[in-house]
Amino acid sequence: MQSEIAVKLSENVPRYTSYPTAPHFHSGVDAAIYRGWLEALESGDEISLYLHIPYCDKLCWFCACHTKQTHQYEPVAAYLRSLNAEIVTIAGLVSGKAHVRAIHFGGGSPTMLRPDDMVALGAALRDSFDLLPDATVSIEIGTNDMDKARLDALAQIGVTRASLGVQDFDPQVQKAINREQSFLQTKAVVDGVRSRGVESVNVDLLYGLPNQTRETICSTVAQALTLEPDRMALFGYAHVPWFKKHQTMIDEAWLPSPTERFAQSQLAARAIVAKGYEAIGLDHFAKPDDALAIAARAGVLHRNFQGYTEDRCPTLIGLGPSSIGRFRQGYVQNMASTAGYGRMVADGGLAAVRGVALSDDDRVRGWIIERLMCDFAFSAVDLVERFGKAGEKLLHRSRSIALHDPARALEFDGDSFVVRAESRPFVRTIAAKFDTYFKGGTARHSVAV
Fold first, then answer.
1. Element (H, E) at 224
2. Cα–Cα distance between 173 and 220 in angstroms, integer?
3. What is the pLDDT of residues 14-30, one digit of tens each?
4. Distance CA 182, CA 185 (A)
5. pLDDT over 90 percentage in the chain
6. Omega before 349 cis (within 30°)?
7. Which residues, other chains included, contact 103 with Cβ-Cβ below 8 Å and sequence gap of 6+?
8. How far apart are CA 53 and CA 321, in angstroms?
9. DSSP 230
10. Is 414 exposed, middle or buried (0-12, 13-18, 19+ CB in 10 A)?
11. What pLDDT shows up at residue 250?
12. Quick check: bond before 20 cis, omega within 30?
């Protein structure tokens, strides 16, 4: 039955970490509008910060992040000077009003920073912004970067959650994606961050990788589970060589078929759940006492550019090149070029070059898509109560989708629209039915599963 649904619903669709999605951002939202959105923050607002470190010392061929390889540290040091300039400018616009609830360091490889630079960056954030006493600090760790000094630096800047990219432990798969990382290396880092007080550890795995099989991914999952991470993410490899040229290093003949990808994802998910983890949304898992699982059970799970999150802040400020911010008014994205970004933030400037201001229709559709991605359902009553006439319009659209969908993936029970259990792996395809930009867009996307 699921294989039949896979044929009907598996197509190339967005990942829906925002709505509208990034390909529909435009230059009409610029630095001047961004400055206005920052100045419009109200006293007592809680915000989150995302800091992008766009460098790696080795480029993984599967990666679709905005990053570049460097064997010299000077470009990184120069970039940090620009990042600090942006921090000063942003803080000057929001200090005295907004309080920071969460900080996330992403990349690239944030742990490529030298320990003293890591500590200095953490100090700059605490000196510039008003951090809440219980603010969370999370970081994406490049396992091969880590040593005792960097582990100590993470402790010094107050990291509360560490995320490690594993992908697959099989040597043949690792060679095909240019990322060699042993289980023992990974375990040493997990033990290292935990011994320094990090409260939560996340492990990222991928299915659909070159040379990957059901056996290799099951073996990887089994090894990862022995680390007893608090959270696990199971992403499908997004093969987008038209977007990331280094992915052409991966021979497409090495990639598993759609049917094999689906089988890998289901086997891995079942193995994780069998160990007591709760399935969170499309591709995350968490221990029952983890904040992510608690948020999911309470119906307050959210989704942003870092994936599923319990972070409820309506404002996310992106710092660094290509970073995306989210505001009540809309989305804004910084200049992607590191050099261009540096020029724009010099002398108190802002680096925003594109984005989108939300219409009433965008807000309704975005809410529906987020609830589908997070809860696999949304309430008809909530829809109308939250959005009034705009909600009533989308209620009729929702009923039409449920009634005329030949796969019957979305059902209406009289109170709520619910994604059938067997259709949940394809929820991105269902969400796309509410995306008014999707059919008319020219952007290319990765497969749904």
1. helix 214-225
2. 11
3. 999 999 999 999 999 99
4. 5
5. 82
6. no
7. 48, 49, 50, 51, 125, 131, 135, 136, 137, 138
8. 8
9. S
10. exposed
11. 87
12. yes
